[in-house]
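Listing S7. Sequence submitted for prediction.
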Amino acid sequence: MIKLEENYRSVKRIIKIANSVISHTINIYEKCIFSNLEHGIKTKIIKLRNEKDESESVLDEAHKISLKSSFFNYKDCAILYINNYQSHILEKACIKKIFHM
């Protein structure tokens, strides 16, 4: 078996969080990912009630960043998610935000 554990895109801080999430899931094989990139900026972990609250929180954070930076443009923003079912919830939240702004 060949394990692909090196992550070439994410910084060490994100990898540490990912390993924590992975350790709480039921896996057939143990996995511990790593990165050789720098540590990265400080992350914020927020516990929310459900997927709807999660989507709204992500969009609220993007909006806060846009207010602080004259260089921020929503078209340059990406939201990464693990499961495809999350895309529909995020799309609905984006549409709701657009029509309420």
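Caption to Listing S7: primary sequence and predicted structure tokens for the chain studied. The two ends are 51 Å apart (CA to CA). The mean pLDDT is 84.
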